[in-house]
Amino acid sequence: MTELSNLTRYTTFIGVIVLCLLSLILVAVWSAWFWIPFAAFGALSLLGLHDVRQEHHSILRNYPVLGHMRFLFEGIRPEIRQYLIENDQDEEPFSRDARSLVYQRAKGQEDARPFGTRMRVYDAGYSWVTHSVQPKHIDNTDFRITIGNDACTQPYSASIYNISAMSFGSLSGNAILALNKGAAAGKFAHDTGEGSVSRYHREGGGDLIYQVASGYFGARAADGSFDPEKFRETAALPQIKMIELKLSQGAKPGHGGLLPASKINEEIAEARGIPMGQDCVSPAAHSAFSTPIEMMQFLARLRELSGGKPVGFKLCIGHQREFMCMVKAMIETGIVPDFIVVDGAEGGTGAAPLEFSNHVGMPMVEGLTFVHNTLRGAGLRDRIKVGAAGKIVSAFDIARALALGADWCNSARGFMFSIGCIQAQACHTNHCPVGVATQDPLRARALDPESKSQRVARFHRETMDALGEMTGAAGLDAPCDFLPHHLMQRQSDLAMVQGNRAFAYLPEGFLLDDIAADHRGYKERWARASPQTFDPPEVTY
């Protein structure tokens, strides 16, 4: 009985062999049309024979032919979940509600919803904006801020909602072109990502934020170090409005990268300034500086080499003391960056180790609150603009970030949705079904830059209009007027807390005042921070 039970594993394999032989008999005695099923069942029989003989997959050896169904369903699992199973509010990683909102606004379709909210408004984590009984009407929703402090000679008037860093190489040329053309049409900025400025960025004509990462692409010497003359040449492009030094990104903070030689084509090599036929390494750490003071000096050098354009840095908060080391270095050297971009751990990427995506880095809300309050405590907040990035796709997302201390917001995946991304999560496979995250020319050809650029501009415009309506509903004149007390958040079932209690602004200059009270351990970390080194002091246990 046990032996019979064990043989049932081969039922499918035996069945296709029997059907193959039966088809062959029917060819001989009935009709030549049975060559078709004979060929099909013959191929399955050979597949089953291969399954039994191979040594790599145990499930195929035990369940020849049938075992392939497991791999088939595993391959289409994201699509089955996305289209048939997931709830509209399930974040995998973006909910259907969020994606639909972007699609509708990008296409200029009606984005209203009937029959009330689907959110569970009494569950912990639900948050909302408080509104006024005297709402205001805002006509001009081209909300902008000026980035550049007194050391900057070319300040930039930026939109408060821009395209976050995504490199050419990670995205296709057509995707980059569509995004940049949309940025040009909508008069907002497009971050190049660490892959430098490509021909598609130049062709688009939109404003650029040139990101300088540890690989120094676009400003790279032959040995991979920083080349000041190459940087000067790249930074001089009129399209480049700001320079962003990337320390880390939310999706994989503290992690470098490797672009294999097999994936480097002529266009990528041209943009990055790297040779063909060699692996391209992006180290985890910068080689141009190693201490907080050296970092500030490097930022000053970038400002000088760029002709006085706004210079800042982007990071995902890790050790909070290390950020305080940077702030102390600003005070000691007098070199104050024009901006800081806080990236949340919920940020996206084409590919990252699961442990890094899930368990390294501080989420945007906490990171932004910490950076904002540290700068306030050090008396530097009014000299530095702060950007925020991390799943920001709606007017509420922007309003919340501004209330928590941001001056502007960036979005990567939101603008990817606007050019057709369907969240297939195949970015790392080169098989993106809509031509966004791929270097396959045939797949990329499916994305039309002209029509998609119009969607990019329309998504930005309609999101700004929605932000204007939300700002007016709160009784405010401009989005920059949002403060924590305009937010409410449910901390547990039936219990709610006002934003200025959950995300309080700490007093100006308290970190510099020896007699001022400590707040949430800030002064204890401040005491342990040094402008001379990122290394921690000895800890006594």
From TrEMBL:
Keyword Lipid biosynthesis among record annotations: no
Membrane-crossing segments per the record: 12-36
A GO BP entry: glutamate biosynthetic process
Molecular function, one GO term: glutamate synthase activity
Family membership noted in the UniProt record: Belongs to the glutamate synthase family.
Highest taxon above the source species: Bacteria
Protein name: FMN-binding glutamate synthase family protein
InterPro entries: Aldolase_TIM (IPR013785), GltB (IPR024188), Glu_synthdom (IPR002932), YerD (IPR027283)
Pfam family, one: Glu_synthase
SUPFAM superfamilies for the chain: FMN-linked oxidoreductases
UniProt entry keywords in alphabetical sequence: Membrane, Transmembrane, Transmembrane helix
Glutamate synthase domain segment(s): 161-476
Presence of keyword Cell membrane: no
